[in-house]
Design goal:
Length: 275
Amino acid sequence: MGQFGHAGGMVHVSRVRFVGLVVLVIAVSACSGSHRPGLVPPGTSEPDRFLFDKGTAALNAKKWLTAREFFKQVVESYVQSPYRPDSKLGMGDTYLGEGTAEALVLAINEFREFLSYYPTHRRADYAQFKLGLAHFRQMRAPQRDQTETREAVKELQVFVERYANSSLIEEGRAKLRAARDRLSESSYEVAYFYYKQRWYPGAINRFKELIKDDPGFTRRDAVYFYYAESLLKSKNGMEAEALPLYERLVNEFEKSEYLVEAQRRIEELKQAQTK
């Protein structure tokens, strides 16, 4: 009986210790929880605004995960809040700030959802621009797959056409031009490869298509030159078509590595016409 009573006492002490340990863990968790992102202090009159301001401060400090937690609480807990749309954009910005391949995919999802939920919002232009930018940052080298480049062109084109009065319009146009240049550079490299291999019909078709699809290509001087050279070297009676291309190069470019050679070709072709 004494032994049993002693064992019972040991069990009682163990339970007390266990309960005490649980209470300690809860207390520690509560204390640490007071520093968790998104915990609103008691008595806060505008909790949604508090969370949004905290998220914005963290975003400006490039604390992507912390900012996301604040914004996420606004989006999920305050559906009717006037800060919810901006918090949705803030979440997209945190993913864009991280910049990893996975984060950029999530950024695209956030900006697409924003445009779906708030198509007429005052910051719809911002969402559309950032959507294009998320694709832009995934563009690959001209020699590689251009799927993301095409998506960037598509979304940035929507931005430029739909939001001409946006404060981001100049940056949007610049990014659109850069994305188009990447696509055109990819096509140019294929055409130039054909030219180097002396398969002039293939080169001619590619250069012709490139000029038609992107007349503003930044490196179109190279396209004019090698398109014209391909016409000359094909020897299929296409010499007359080459002259206007050389002339366009000279007229449109004050500086070009092909300028001197193009001028020489123009003189030769014009002399040949007079004979």
